[in-house]
Amino acid sequence: MHTTLRALTAAGAVALLALTGCSSSGGADAETGGETPASAEGWPRTIVHDAGETEIPDEPLTIVSTSVTLTGSLLAIDAPVAASAATGVGPITDDQGFFRQWADVADERGVEVLYPDLTLDLEAVELAEPDLIVGSSIGADATAEAYDQLSEIAPTIMIDYGTHDWREILGQLGEATGHEAEAGRTLDDFDAWVAEQAADLEPVAGPVTALSYNGADPSMIFEPNSSQAELLTALGFEYAGAPDEVVAEHRSDASSVTPENLPTALGDKSALFMVSIERDGVDGVTSDPLLANARAVADDTVVPLGATSFRIDPYSARLLVEAVVEAFGSSR
Amino acid sequence: MIDTLPRRGEAGAGARTGIRLAAVLIGGLVVLLVATVLSLGIGSHVVPPRTVIDALTHFDPAQDDHLIVVRSRIPRALLCLVVGVGLAVAGAVMQALTRNPLAEPGLLGLNAGASLAVVVAISFFGVSELAGYLWFAFVGAAVAAVAVYALGTAHRSAATPARMALAGSAIAMAVGAVTTSILLSRESAYDQFRFWAVGSLQGRPLEVTGAVLPCVALGVAGALALIRPLNALALGDDAARALGASAPAIRLGGGLVVVLLAGAATAAAGPIGFVGLVAPHLVRLLVGSDHRALLPGTIVLGPAILMVADVLGRIVIAPAELPTAVAAALIGGPVFVALIRTNRRIAG
Questions:
Q1: Which residues from B are below 8 Å from A140, CB to CB?
Q2: Which compartments is it annotated to reside in (chain A) (predicted)?
Q3: DSSP B243
């Protein structure tokens, strides 16, 4: 049964590749604005990634993703993903542990669960007979420690999604999978769509901030270089992160701020965008006694971005923009 | 009634113990008072001393600094007092009941039971607020303690210190495995759970303190009522029986006291170690093992140690903060090692 499914999936992937193959080899220049990756000319190609360099002999037809975070980006560029690791079932996933923002797409394309609960299963990876393995080197779905074992099964690349934003990741995956054209087209389409949405928006005056509110524990305020901040800026908002003097710890794209310093960090922001894995966070902020004087609380401009906004991929980016449009669009 | 105070030369020994207890109580209260004042003035956000006084005397809710002092630091200090008393007295009673100098609330599986109950509350009942965890944690701690006692006394065995410690370890491991398996399958529960599990006094509203205060007060009253039986038990089960005390009855009463104290403290602040271990040891070193001196000293020194740890946790890595449990462990660890070395010298 599984073999049949895999065969069907592989056949589907081949068909998909046949449909997209021309554009990926011939149309790369046009679609990506002339920026053809050095190794995009043919196969084999060598991909430089977070765990080293990997030679990929032929365009992959069966890809498995050991990173549930990166699977969305692979799907967005029409890469032939046969199976993906799944995380624990919860509010941000469907009932098999795939992220909600792309679970429907995965279902349509027959993507199987490689293994559940982010518990790496090398045997399952081997049984999937991949010709490319995509994994992450950071986060709960990191499989960098098993890079050597994975590389024995198939060419493997590791991506650090903490230091590269979703646009860069899309380009990197496009190059590794031979889907550069789709990656470029996905970004171009997205940018055009965001520009349309921005035209319909009425952003509040003054700086805004996106944060993951953690109640009694330090909250994370997203830095201006974060994907969340870049999306808000693209929509016309003036974005400001946390002032340096109140930051307890700087991370790659966010800074932690203790509850006592949150009033200083958030007090003058004209809107707060709640990025949260579990809850939308709005109630927490509006009922926090220390934030009673915050401008956004008084102005009722604390906006939930939804549970999918924590990790940005092409699908969650779209959901984030839609949440902002719902709050500040002229037709709201 | 049972009286285990020294009979021979007791006038001199009693006077010395009395003086030492007075010194511990006065010294402990001074440390507690200073640490409490500092806890109102010190935090990851700098509030000038004059503003702290203004906040206390002329509270203005429109000023953020006033909100920090009145809405955050005062509730935190009050909770620290309650949790410190609860953990320290629970530790002293547990050490007496099990005659195990390493006994503390974690030993009888209380932390493990409370943790499992909180995970169940989050995962299966959708509880997301601290006030909601409170009663789950309390019940979890109590059930774990009963399970440990039942296992330790299975087949009509006596609840010896070794049996209770082994039963506690076994239950804690089994319960911990269940907790981990639930967390592994529910990533979102883990995100909520870790905020409680880290052990902190930050951000707990006054209602939390109000909810656990009666339990801690009742527990302390129970511990004080058990002073003489605990002294008798310290001599061993046979000696206690010879003195007319029932060891099982003392253990049952003491167990209820421990569940009340440690269950309430853990439910309110999450698992915080070392206070329940270090405070009784420190007091015992200063005033001896007689519970008439040990328990009052522990009641004062427990919150003093926790308050000092909490304040230091806000200073050492400012503007970040160490969670209270981490600060307590960092301070409690070296203090405990020093105590052991001191005891060795005394013994040697």
A1: 187
A2: Cell envelope
A3: T
**pLDDT tens for residues B66-113?**
999 999 999 999 999 999 999 999 999 988 888 877 777 777 788 889
Distance CA A134, CA A156 (A): 6
The CA distance from A231 to B290, in Å, is 67
Contact call for residues B215 and B142 (beta carbons, < 8 A): no
Contacts of B189 in chain A (CB under 8 A): 90
Beta bridge pairs of residue A47: A54
- The answer to whether the CB atoms of B202 and A216 lie below 8 A apart is yes
Question: Are A215 and B203 in contact (CB < 8 Å)?
Answer: yes
Taking the CA of residue B174 and the nearest CA in chain A, the distance in Å comes to 21
Residue B153, amino acid? T
Contacts of B255 (CB under 8 A, 6+ apart): B97, B145, B149
Pairwise CB contact (< 8 Å): B188 & A88: yes
* B280 upstream amide cis, omega within 30 of 0: no
Q: Between A and B, how many residue pairs show a Cβ–Cβ distance under 8 A?
A: 92
Residue A40 token pair:
């995009």
For chain B, what is the mean pLDDT? 85
How far does CA A302 lie from the centroid of its chain? 23
CA–chain centroid gap for A158, Å, is: 15
